[in-house]
Amino acid sequence: MAATVTVEPAGRSCWDEPVSIVVRGLAPEQRVTLRTSLRDEKGELFRAHARYRADAGGELDLARAPALGGSFAGLEPMGLFWAMEAEKPWGRLVKRDVHQPFAVELEVLDGHEPEGGRLLGRTVHEREFLAPGVRREPVRAGRVRAALFLPPGAGPFPGIIDLFGSGGGLCEYRASLLAGHGFAVLALAYFRFEDLPESLNVVHLEYFEEAVDFMLQHPKGITATVVINSCVANTIAPLHYKDMIIPDLGSDLGKHTTTESGLLDFMNIWNNPLEKPYHQSLIPLEKAQGPFLFIVGMDDYSWKSEFYANIASERLQAHGKDRPQIIHYPGTGHCIDPPYFPPSRASVHAVLGLAIYYGAVRLRSPDGEQEPGWVVAGDGAGCGQPGKMALIAGQA
């Protein structure tokens, strides 16, 4: 091995932090292939590769050198991370144990063949999910089952309750990373975890009130809600709150289509909540006290996220509420993960057990440029100050 691979920050970085990758000791204008790989907690392999050409001095700096093909093309300094794909079909990269980093292997191979080139250099870089000083506290308060992530320091901190969708369990990786940016984040489980219900059918909304009450032990209350690619109507199972039941929207599975790859496309199966038979499934957002921020992936194939966000906007304004902020991301599918996660175009659905198509490739800003940063309750949603709290309703 003749080349030296340098990754900065050296040794370890947070998953949502960009890194600098430089290869030195190559021949002038040498053609090489860079390859990354990691194994998730189940041992599944994820890989990416890209072809490059060194400069006249034998150096390759990914901040300046465009990829000439492979898993991606063009100037993408972090492409070798976000472009990783599962070796197993429809695999999705998730993180269950946030205490343990992912070890990413980066190799430099001679030539433009990702499997056959001579190994020139190699390094391993760890991508962690707990920034220095971030504390994780397990929460078992009444019925609430959660994990609270607190930034370093005395606070107070802006607070977030982080909810995932129909997969169940306790997902912590988004909460742990957000805590590294100064938020106090409660990653909240609400079914399929410990002694919580196994099914959404028996989940009662009073449970979430308990979670809010727990967070209210920290100063101030919920002042904003961030909704990521969610439906404005109740979808899969009835919602129970005291003596009120919000029925599910219902669907017609016969309206599904199949992609050329054999994936199921469920975008058009859902009933229209604006039609009278399904109107009772609409969630009464107008009763909320704070503003809303809707994140809409314009290529969401799980359902019509933009349509639902517009319904919510009209409903809120019709009841004298402020118009919510809606941010549209062209070319973005249903699953929006933290920065530099490989995009999840499809995976086996946790409830249905079938391979579902989620939509397009990656998060981009409204003007079409790459958007690697977090989207949380910020300037337009009233949660940029210490002591305030937002509720994030996530997807998948």
Task: Sum up the structure in keywords.
396 residues, mainly beta, 8-stranded mixed sheet, 6-stranded mixed sheet, globular
Folded structure, characterized:
- Residues 16-140 form the Acyl-CoA thioester hydrolase/bile acid-CoA amino acid N-acetyltransferase domain.
- The chain has 396 residues and is mainly β.
- It has helices at 79-82, 173-179, 206-215, 305-318; strands spanning 4-8, 12-14, 20-24, 31-39, 45-53, 60-61, 85-86, 102-110, 119-128, 135-141, 144-150, 159-163, 184-189, 222-228, 239-241, 244-246, 257-258, 264-265, 292-297, 325-329, 346-348, 355-357, 389-393.
- The strands form 6 sheets. An 8-stranded mixed beta sheet has the order 10-11-13-12-23-14-19-20, sandwiched between helices. A 6-stranded mixed beta sheet has the order 2-9-8-4-5-7. The protein has a 3-stranded antiparallel beta sheet with strand order 1-3-6, with no helix packed on it.
- Strand 19 (292-297), helix 4 and strand 20 (325-329) form a beta-alpha-beta unit.
- The two termini are 43 Å apart.
* Uncertain runs: 362-372, 374-387
Shape: globular
Oligomer: single chain
Global mean pLDDT: 86
β-strand amount? 25-35%
N to C succession of SSEs: EEEEEEHEEEEEEHEHEEEEEEHEEEE
Structural class: mainly beta
Number of helices: 4
Largest sheet: 8 strands, mixed
Helicity, in percent?
A: under 10%
Number of strands: 23
Strand order of the largest sheet: 10-11-13-12-23-14-19-20
Radius of gyration over alpha carbons?
22 Å
- Ends apart, CA distance between termini: 43 Å
Family: Belongs to the C/M/P thioester hydrolase family.
Domain BAAT/Acyl-CoA thioester hydrolase C-terminal: 220-359
InterPro entries: AB_hydrolase_fold (IPR029058), Acyl-CoA_thioEstase_long-chain (IPR016662), BAAT_C (IPR014940), Thio_Ohase/aa_AcTrfase (IPR006862), Thio_Ohase/BAAT_N (IPR042490)
Domain Acyl-CoA thioester hydrolase/bile acid-CoA amino acid N-acetyltransferase: 16-140
